[in-house]
Design goal:
With 433 residues, the chain is mainly alpha-helical. The chain has a single domain, classed as ADP-ribosylglycohydrolase fold (Orthogonal Bundle), CATH 1.10.4080. It is 52% helix and 1% strand. Strand 1 (296-298) and strand 2 (301-303) form a beta hairpin. Helix 1 (23-37) packs antiparallel against helix 2 (45-65), helix 10 (204-215) runs antiparallel to helix 11 (223-233) and helix 14 packs across helix 15. It starts with 22 loop residues before the first helix and ends with a helix. Residues 1-22, 285-306, 349-415 are annotated as: Disordered. Residues 385-395 have a biased composition (Polar residues). It is an enzyme of class 3 (hydrolase).
C-alpha cells in the first residue's frame, strides 16, 4: 500500500479505466512518443518496435472480443519476427514463418525496412523465442527494449500483478539480462501509473515512488535497477545528482548504454524538471504566479507545464550533462506523454481516420468482421493456441525542441504520425467498452 495521502497509482488487481474520456489521448500520446523523440523518417527502430507491440496486443484484443483467448507473448514474438524479417533477418529453417499482418499490409511507413542496433535484432534472427528461464541472449541489456515494451503500460483493466508478468515475458523474448527485463517492466509500471495520475493530478515523484515500491516485488535479480529507482524516489538523493560537476549524473546513473541506465537517466531528468518547478513556486511565495513560465498550479503545488515543455526541458538537462542516449530521451518523452500528453496527439478533424483506412475505427475479429462487445480483460499469458507458433505458417522533433505551432503543418502530413494515429485509434476501438 502507498503511504497516507499518496494516490494508489498502482493497484495489484485493478488498472486503467478504458472508458475514461482521457484514455484515447493517453494512448495517442504514448504511441507518438518514440516518433516525437526521434527522427521523423521511416525506419526508426523505436517507433517500429513499439508499433509491432501495439499490433500484437491489438491481435490479442481482437481474439478476446471474439470470445477467444490468446497468448500475448507468442503474439508479440511473431510480431517482432515480422519486423526482423522486414529488416533482413535470415531465419533458420526450423523457425516459424509468420505471414504478413495488418501492419505489414496497411502501414507502409511503420513497416518499412530501416537501420537497427542493439540486441533485439540479433536475438530475433536466431528464430528462437527467448524466455525468462531460457534466454536466447543471457547478457543482453541494450536499451531499445524500453520503447518496445512501454505500450504494455496502456493495457486497461489489469493491475500490476498481471502487468509485471506480461512485461517481463515480452522483454525476455530478446533480452536475457534480469536488469534489462526489470528496467523494461519498471517503465511499463511508470507509464501505467502516469496515465492514472492524470485523474488524480498526482506528481511524477508520486508516480516514481509507486514504481519503486512495486518494482521491489519483482523477483528477478536486478539490484542495480532497484537501487537506482530507490535513489530517484528519494528527493535528497536525486537532488544530489545535479550538483557539482556534470560527471556527477553519469557517474551515478551511467551514460544510457543499458536499459537500466537509460531508464534512470530519463526519469532523473523528468523529476529534476518537476522538482525545479516546485522549488520556484515555493520560493515565489505567491500561488498566483504559478512558479515559472509554463507551469501551472494545482492544490498549492506547481506542475512544470505541458508534456512538450517537460520533455523539452528534461532532454535539455541531459544534453547539458553530455548525455546523448536516444533511449534516455525516449524514456523522457514516453513518460511525459503518459502523464501530461503531447501536442502532436491532439486530433483535428483532418487527422480522423477515414472510412476504409484499415477499418481502424471499428473493432475487428480475426476475419475482419465487426465485433461489438465489452472491452477485453487481459490477464497473464494463458498458453492458448491463439498466437502460438503452430498457427503461423535526436530530440529535434515536434513538441520537443519546437513549438506545436511551428511544426503543426508538417506533423499533419507526416506519414509516420498519420499511421501511428490510425494505430492508436484501432487500439481504442478494440480495448474500450
Amino acid at each position: 500500500m502507498t503511504s497516507p495521502g499518496t494516490p494508489e497509482l498502482l493497484d495489484r488487481d485493478h488498472g486503467l479505466d478504458p472508458s475514461s474520456s482521457d484514455y484515447p489521448n493517453a494512448v495517442r500520446s504514448v504511441l507518438l512518443a518514440p516518433w516525437s523523440a526521434g527522427e521523423p523518417a521511416a525506419g526508426n527502430e523505436a517507433v517500429q518496435l513499439s508499433a509491432r507491440t501495439v499490433s500484437a496486443l491489438n491481435e490479442v484484443a481482437r481474439w478476446a472480443n471474439d470470445g477467444q483467448s490468446a497468448d500475448p507473448t507468442a503474439c508479440a514474438w511473431l510480431a517482432y519476427l515480422r519486423w526482423a524479417v522486414a529488416n533482413g533477418a535470415q531465419l533458420p529453417s526450423d523457425a516459424p514463418r509468420p505471414p504478413a499482418d495488418v501492419l505489414d499490409r496497411d502501414f507502409p511507413a511503420l513497416s518499412a525496412a530501416g537501420p537497427h542496433e542493439g540486441d533485439s535484432f540479433t536475438a530475433l534472427a536466431t528464430g528462437r523465442l527467448g524466455e525468462v528461464v531460457r534466454p536466447v541472449l543471457p547478457d543482453a541489456q541494450s536499451p531499445e527494449v524500453l520503447a518496445r515494451t512501454a505500450p504494455y503500460g496502456l493495457i486497461p483493466n489489469v493491475g500490476w500483478k498481471s502487468l509485471i508478468v506480461l512485461a517481463l515475458d515480452s522483454a525476455a523474448i530478446t533480452h536475457g539480462s534480469p536488469e534489462a527485463q526489470t528496467a523494461a517492466t519498471a517503465l511499463v509500471l511508470t507509464v501505467h501509473a502516469a496515465v492514472r495520475a492524470r485523474s488524480s493530478d498526482a506528481s511524477l515523484a508520486e508516480v516514481l515512488a509507486e514504481t519503486a515500491r512495486v518494482s521491489s516485488a519483482i523477483t528477478r535479480p536486478a539490484p542495480r535497477t532497484r537501487d537506482l529507482l530507490a535513489t530517484l524516489a528519494d528527493a535528497d538523493a536525486r537532488a544530489a545528482l545535479w550538483t557539482g560537476a556534470p560527471e556527477t549524473l553519469t557517474g551515478r546513473l551511467g551514460t544510457g548504454d543499458t536499459a537500466t541506465q537509460a531508464l534512470a537517466l530519463g526519469l532523473a531528468a523528468l523529476l529534476a524538471v518537476e522538482d525545479a518547478a516546485s522549488r520556484e513556486f515555493l520560493a515565489s511565495g505567491d500561488s498566483a504566479r504559478g512558479g515559472h513560465a509554463g507551469s501551472r498550479v494545482s492544490e498549492g503545488r506547481a506542475w512544470p507545464g505541458s508534456g512538450d515543455d517537460v520533455a523539452r526541458n528534461a532532454c535539455a538537462l541531459l544534453t547539458d550533462r553530455g548525455v546523448t542516449s536516444c533511449a534516455a530521451q525516449q524514456v523522457v518523452v514516453v513518460v511525459a506523454a503518459a502523464r501530461w500528453g503531447l501536442a502532436a496527439a491532439r486530433v483535428e478533424a483532418e487527422d480522423a481516420p477515414r472510412a476504409g483506412d484499415q477499418q481502424a475505427a471499428e473493432p475487428m475479429t480475426s476475419d475482419g468482421t465487426d465485433s461489438p462487445g465489452d472491452a477485453p480483460i487481459l490477464g497473464a499469458p494463458t498458453g492458448s493456441h491463439r498466437g502460438s507458433t503452430e498457427n503461423t505458417g535526436n530530440t529535434e522533433r515536434a513538441g520537443i525542441t519546437e513549438s506545436a505551432e511551428e511544426t503543426g503543418s508538417r506533423d499533419a502530413v507526416d506519414p509516420v504520425r498519420t499511421e501511428l494515429l490510425r494505430l492508436a485509434e484501432h487500439w481504442t476501438s478494440l480495448w474500450r467498452p
